[in-house]
C-alpha cells in the first residue's frame, strides 16, 4: 500500500470500498487510469460483504432482461428510472460473467446456475454463492484491486469536495485527525447509504454496518449534486428478532424462496411470501398492529418465519451460513420457526445519475446505494449487488475516460 499525502493526485479517486466502489476501482484501473481508493475505516468494512441473498440476472430459458426490467418497474411502483433499469437488467448477464472472470464461483446445479425466485420476481433468476454472496463478490473484487497498481487510502473520511480547473479536490480526515487534500481528474462516490445512523436516531434495529452514516451524500449535495427519493428507506422484511445476538441480522429472503412462510400467533399465513419487500414488511407491521403478532422473550414485536418447511438439502446448499449462526445459539431453523420483524436495511434514493453513473456534477460519478433512480422508491432483493457491479463498472470506465480527456 502506498502512503498518500496532501497534494497527491489520481486520474480517478473512488470513495468507498464496498462492491460498487471496488467494481469502479477495478474497472478504472483496467481502463488505464491511476486510481486511488479511499475508505472511512478499512477496505474490508462495508455493507456489501454482509449481503447474503444473492444477485439477479436473467439466465433462465423462460426469462429475459425485459422481464427482469418489468419486475423492477412493478416492484418500484413505476418510480424507478426506465433508462437506468434497462441498463441494469440488460447488462446483468455480462456482469455475472465479469465477476466469474474475477474469481466468483456461483452455486451451480444440473449443469447450470442454481437459480431461485426472489420477492417481486416473476421468474427464477437469483444467483448465489451459498448465502455469502456479498462476501464472495467483495473478496474477489478487493483481491483484484489489491493485485493491481492502485493506491489504498484506508481511514480517510471524506469531509469536502471542491471543483477545480482540471477536476476535483477531495478533503479527507485521517484517523490521526490530519486533513489531507487529494486531487483527481474524476471522482466516484460509492460510500453507501445512511440506515445505520437513521436506525440509531429512530431507536430501531438495522442490518447495516456502522459505517453507513450518509455524510458523503450530504457532502455531494453541498457541492451542488442533485438527489432524489432520499426519504424512501427500505425495511428488510425478515430481520432477526430473537435471540438478542441475532437482532438486526438479515435472515436471507431466500428462506421464503425455498418454502418458508410468514405466520401469525395463530399459525395462519397472512401475506404472500414472495411479494415485494415493502408489501411484505407492511403486512408484518399491520399483523402486529392487529394484535396477531408475538412477543420475543425480551418483549419486542415479531411474527413467526416458519422455516421448518424448507427442504434440508436446499438449506444446506443455499442457507449454510444462516444455519450455522442460528444453530450456534441453540436454534435449529429446520426444526422450529424463527422470530422475525422488519429492520431498516437500504436507502432506496440517492444522488441523481445518468446511464454512465455521472451525477449532476460534471466529473463526479455515483454508484451503489448512494445513487438513486435505479430502484425508485422500493428495491427488489438481489438488485443491490447487481447495481453495484453494473454501475460500478460503468462509473469506473467512464471516469477514467473523463479524466484522460
Explained architecture:
- Helices cover 31% and strands 22% of the residues.
- It is α/β, with parallel strands linked by helices.
- It has two domains: 9-194 and 348-404, FAD/NAD(P)-binding domain (3-Layer(bba) Sandwich), CATH 3.50.50.60; 235-344, Succinate dehydrogenase/fumarate reductase flavoprotein, catalytic domain (Flavocytochrome C3, Chain A, domain 1), CATH 3.90.700.10.
- The two termini are 28 Å apart.
- The model has no long low-confidence stretch (mean pLDDT 96).
The best one-word shape is globular
Structural class: alpha/beta
Say how many strands there are. 19
CA-atom Rg in angstroms: 21 Å
CATH-assigned homologous superfamily of the largest domain:
FAD/NAD(P)-binding domain
The profile of the biggest β sheet is: 7 strands, mixed
Percent range for helical residues? 25-40%
Tell me what portion of residues adopts beta-strand conformation: 15-25%
The chain-level mean pLDDT equals: 96
Q: In the CATH classification, which architecture of the largest domain applies?
A: 3-Layer(bba) Sandwich
Distance between the ends = 28 Å
- Total number of helical segments? 12
> Which stretches of 5+ consecutive residues score pLDDT under 50?
none
**What is the C-level CATH assignment of the largest domain?**
Alpha Beta
The CATH topology name of the largest domain reads: FAD/NAD(P)-binding domain
The structural domain count equals 2
